[in-house]
Write a structure and sequence with these properties.
single chain; alpha+beta; Ybab, Chain: A; 2 helices
């Protein structure tokens, strides 16, 4: 019985190490989202951090700031959703599709 517990603990430790490595790698992977036909572009990494926002000058209209705010918000939310999806997919490879609440 003790051998099974030791084996299981080794597997858990390996999974933890693999997950730490995966999270580091996800920080280097990026996803991109655009809004308004590409006039607003947002890039986020696998840590769900926005790493860049690009706004084409032609969309900047002082008379319609709300439209620009909406475009930025849309692009940011979509980029973060894509980053979450990427993280879930990559972590699923490690966990074999197990849904472990609170894991990520």
């Amino acid at each position: 019985m003790g051998g099974n517990m030791a084996k299981m603990m080794k597997q858990v430790q390996k999974m933890q190490a693999d997950m730490a490595k995966m999270q580091e790698e996800l920080g280097n992977k990026t996803v991109e989202s655009t809004a308004g036909g590409g006039v607003v572009r947002v890039v986020a990494n696998g840590r769900q951090e926005v790493v860049s926002v690009e706004i084409k000058p032609e969309v900047v209209d002082p008379e319609d700031v709300e439209m620009l705010q909406d475009l930025v918000l849309t692009a940011v939310n979509e980029a973060l959703k894509k980053a979450q999806d990427m993280m879930t997919k990559e972590m699923g490879k490690l966990t074999g599709g197990l849904n472990i609440p609170g894991l990520f």
